[in-house]
Write a structure and sequence with these properties.
Strand order of the largest sheet: 1-2-4-5-6-3
Distance between the termini: 32 Å
Family: Belongs to the 4-hydroxybenzoyl-CoA thioesterase family.
Number of helices: 3
Structural class: alpha+beta
Largest sheet: 6 strands, antiparallel
Radius of gyration: 16 Å
Order of helices and strands: EEHHEEEEH
Number of domains: 1
CATH architecture: Roll
Strand content: 35-45%
CATH superfamily: Hotdog Thioesterase
Organism: Sphingomonas limnosediminicola
Pfam family, one: 4HBT_2
CATH topology: Thiol Ester Dehydrase, Chain A
CATH class: Alpha Beta
Keywords: Hydrolase
Shape: globular
Protein name: Tol-pal system-associated acyl-CoA thioesterase
């Protein structure tokens, strides 16, 4: 099997679910080889960023053009089982609700069929002053299209 080792890994959609695979490295764990709780937030952030890119939203261009960007304003997270050094994980993300200035995303960190972490994240679209502003209409349409997939 020949692969392009210079191309970064990208997740992708299976129906309405965005799936992002990752492995647990030593730096992700505590002294006992268990993933440190805050690192689940990093895993989910990477997966959300990849999902946003996969739907065709260019956050970097918008940030440079208008100073606006998404920021997490709320997280409700439940830790169910620990991930450990060497585990292969998958972050499964689904768009639950799209509003004028925010998106609600359900994210699960899975080890095979096991649910390890379950979270609901609200990302608000903020201007350069940190105030909520309307998302671009084409972005709203892209998120709504994902949420509607079956």
């Amino acid at each position: 099997m020949i692969t392009d080792l210079d191309t970064p890994y990208r997740g992708g959609f299976v129906g309405k679910e965005h799936r992002f695979a990752l492995s647990v490295y030593f730096e992700d764990t505590d002294a006992y080889g268990i993933v440190y709780y805050a690192n689940y937030l990093k895993f989910m952030e990477r997966a959300r960023s990849d999902m946003v890119r996969a739907v065709g939203v260019d956050q970097a261009a918008e940030l440079h053009a208008s100073g606006s960007a998404y920021a997490v304003v709320e997280v409700d997270i439940k830790y169910r089982k620990p991930a450990r050094l060497g585990d292969d994980l998958q972050v499964v993300s689904t768009v639950e609700q799209v509003r004028a200035s925010s998106v609600d995303i359900h994210q699960r960190v899975m080890r095979g069929p096991e649910l390890l972490t379950d979270a609901r994240v609200t990302a608000a679209f903020l201007d350069g002053e940190g105030r909520p502003r309307r998302q671009p209409k084409d972005w709203v349409a892209k998120f709504n299209a994902i949420a509607a997939q079956g």
